[in-house]
Amino acid sequence: MAKKPLPRKKVTRKPKASVAELQASEFSAQLARIAEALDRLAPAALASADFAAADAFVWQAAAARLAPVPKVNRVELELLRGIDRVRDQLFDNTQRFARGLSANNALLWGARGMGKSSLVKAVHAQINYKLPKKAPALKLIEIHREDIESLPVLMNLVRAAPYPIIIFCDDLSFDANDTSYKSLKAVLEGGIEGRPDNVVFYATSNRRHLLPRDMMENERASAINPGEAVEEKVSLSDRFGLWLGFHKCSQDEYLEMVFAYCDHFKLKQERALIESESLEWATTRGARSGRTAWQYVQDLAGRLGRRIG
Q: Quick one: which of 193, 94, 190 has its CA closest to 137?
């Protein structure tokens, strides 16, 4: 007996997608990829800073964050000799600022090794030591020279902080093709938002006008109006209301620094020997300065079996 054929299963075929539907689907996928790429390129939102974590921070521009510094590399204010006048001026300006009074941006310029950056850090520590316990601590934020263009971002981060803040740039200067000085000018005085009330900017430099002399001379030679070209460059240092000059020290001032360090760290050695050795040390380095004095004292301490600093 012949077998009955099995009934065929009905196959439901999906209707083919139209060309328009395929194009729309591909377009949507492209839009999704573009959106993801833009998300990756967009700058990360600013993280809120924990200002209570420390009294000093380093600005990390790439990550847009403040890294706390538990222990600042500094010397005591009383050990900075030969700079009494500028020391008192910076201390008074900083003290007024820490108390919520008006204060100026400060430019510390002049001879290398004479304690410009050491003075900023020492004044910061001394002010905090003398502040009343209930007063908000004075914060110090160091920004590196190559990160100056990110200064507006940093300003936005600290604008609402409940602390007085010194933004500090060590060895600030600009070269011929460097235009980042314009953003610094705007942040210090000329921008629409202006400098936050809780911020002052301190900088150290070997140059009084922060720009090399040959750069200003080139501007003068090539500009249609030489006076205006040079004024554009010089006006940067005008944004600092307080100019503090550091000059090379005399032999007596140098020896005073050396003996002050030796007395502070109780290094036992004959004064005549210290004098002759420290003068020879300065001669071999071609300069008398606070840095040279400190380097000699470090060497002396090591020879005496001591560790200082």
A: 94
Q: Within this chain, do residues 80 and 216 fall inside the same structural domain, yes or no?
A: yes
Instruction: Read off the amino acid at residue 73.
Output: N
Residues 240 and 275 both lie in one domain: no
- As a dihedral over the C-alpha atoms of residue 217, residue 222, residue 236, residue 89, rounded to 10 degrees, the angle is 20
For the stretch 143-158, pLDDT in tens is: 998 898 899 899 999 9
d(CA 189, CA 228): 19
Q: Alpha helices of the chain — where are they, by DSSP H?
A: 19-41, 84-98, 116-130, 151-158, 181-185, 213-222, 226-238, 251-264, 271-285, 290-303
Looking from the CA of 270 toward its CB, the CA atoms found within 13 Å total: 4
DSSP state of 248: P
Last residue of a domain, one of 224, 246, 268: 246
Residue 197 neighbours by CB under 8 Å, 6+ apart: none
What pTM, to 2 d.p., does this model score? 0.77
Domain count, the chain: 2
Within this chain, do residues 231 and 269 fall inside the same structural domain, yes or no? no
CA-to-CA distance for 191 and 117, rounded, in angstroms?
A: 27
Q: What is the pLDDT of residues 161-177, one digit of tens each?
A: 999 999 999 988 777 66
In a domain, 309, yes or no: no
Residues near 260 by beta carbon (within 8 Å), at least 6 away in sequence? 78, 79, 81
In this structure, the strands spanning 56-60 and 65-68 are: antiparallel
Task: Tokens for 174, please give them.
Answer: 């600009």
Q: What CATH number is associated with residue 156?
A: 3.40.50.300
Order of strands, sheet of 65-68, starting from the edge strand that comes earlier in the sequence = 65-68, 56-60, 139-142, 165-169, 199-205, 106-110, 242-246
Mean pLDDT throughout 265-281?
A: 95
CA angle 50, 55, 57 (to 5 degrees): 70
Q: Of 63, 59, 68, 62, whose CA–CA distance to 47 is shortest?
A: 63
